[in-house]
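Hey L., structure's done. Input below.
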Amino acid sequence: NGDGKITAMDARSVLRISAKIETSDETVEIGSEETTTEVAEIDRTELKNGFGLSFSDYMKKFGKMQKAESSGSKIKYVNDYVTLVHDPDVIYTGCISSISISGGNYSLCGVHTGMSKDDAISTLKLANWRIVSQSENQIMLEDNAMRMRLAVVGEKITFIEYYLGIALV
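Output:
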């Protein structure tokens, strides 16, 4: 409406004009002022401290999960974005041997889904992780007895698995 502010009424007018319900000979210049948009940092829950906990202790600390169908002696718990695994061939009874995330506001060792591949590698290298193998779609890293697998699509991290690389039974 020319008052220098964009309001719901302005949006309504734009929609009506684009739907050809109204007509207008006016032009609007968008982006004439230099603006900056700050991206708010998302508060993520770091899950690496859940490693080695029992499922019940993990859920007390990080929240409820559902028991999933498991194969053999492995036990799995899941929520929308996190999968926990207990493999008795790898770690003593009842403790978590693998944590995976596929989204949500979670991170493992400072890495989260949606993060750029380069930022993830840089973050992990600063924490003394080293790359064991790397392909276009996957990066394998290790730090002492721990392993991490990152799935990459279009230069972005889409899946993270943090697990024991040696047995502790």
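The chain has a mean pLDDT of 84. The longest helix spans residues 8-18.

-- N.
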